[in-house]
Design a protein that fits this description.
Layout (H helix, E strand, L loop, with lengths): L2 H19 L1 H16 L4 E4 L6 H6 L10 E4 L10 H8 L4 H9 L6 E5 L6 H13 L2 E6 L27 E4 L22 H22 L15 H12 L7
Helix pairs in contact: 1-7, 2-7, 5-6
Length: 250
């Protein structure tokens, strides 16, 4: 098989596995999100560490995405400021508190925590702080790494805990161990990462299920249009005027 065929098959099998096994968990998470919107609140999303931020950007001002989403995009873990710097920051115990404080999450809010590995300090601190503060959590993560990485590994939170065990709703993104899935002739290290596909597919399923629950109750959810489509700017402007003061990165 060609490289393209192997990578394509691997990614397709991954998203099919998510779709076929996570329907109940996605529905549970969507119920929390739908209630949040009905109560006039925003759905908060954080990707505490490196490439996990991509899934957060995926649901911010996104064509076909829910409008009432508050993306938490702290520059500390954003790759644009340095990939290794991001890695160091995500491993820093206590850093998450400053981030949550600055975005002013409060009791009764909902936070989606997206981190495919689910073990670093910022991720675990985020989940623990949400428990303390009465913030409901939905974790998009896996146990493929969490069940294997030693408890005292430098990549872990000092407690050795896993995100999947700390959230109110756990959506398994089925990340394969090692992330990359394609073996090339003459090289041991695989290529072709999958974590962004797994994270983004899972969170989009969650957003769509949330919208469907609202529609089932006769509530038409606000959804962004592509700004590149005719009339898109005018449709989006009504939402932008409402939410610019509330969503920092809008």
């Amino acid at each position: 098989m060609s490289i393209a065929s192997r990578y394509c098959d691997g990614v397709v099998n991954l998203v099919r596995e998510i779709a076929s096994t996570q329907e109940d968990n996605i529905l549970r998470g969507a119920k929390l999100c739908a209630e949040t919107i009905k109560n006039g609140r925003l759905i908060n999303v954080i990707g505490p560490g490196g490439h996990s931020n991509i899934a957060v950007e995926e649901v911010l001002w996104r064509a076909g995405g829910l409008v009432h989403v508050n993306a938490i995009l702290d520059p500390g873990t954003n790759l644009i400021h340095g990939a290794k710097r991001s890695n160091i920051v995500e491993r820093t115990p206590g850093y998450a508190k400053a981030v949550l404080d600055s975005y002013r999450l409060k009791e009764g809010d909902v936070l989606i925590i997206v981190n495919a590995y689910g073990i670093n300090s910022m991720t675990i601190d985020t989940a623990l702080l949400c428990r303390e503060r009465g913030i409901k959590t939905i974790g998009i993560t896996s146990t493929s790494f969490a069940n294997v990485v030693p408890k005292d590994s430098p990549s872990r939170h000092p407690s050795g805990q896993n995100l999947s065990d700390l959230v109110d709703v756990y959506i398994d993104n089925h990340l394969p161990f090692g992330d990359a899935i394609v073996t090339l002739n003459g090289m041991e290290q695989k290529m072709g990462s999958t974590s962004t596909y797994a994270n983004c597919f899972s969170i989009n399923l969650l957003m769509m299920q949330t919208a469907q629950l609202l529609l089932d109750e006769g509530i038409k959810p606000a959804v962004w249009q592509s700004a590149n489509m005719p009339g898109g700017d005018a449709i989006n402007k009504q939402y932008e005027d409402e939410l610019l003061p509330k969503i920092r990165h809008l």
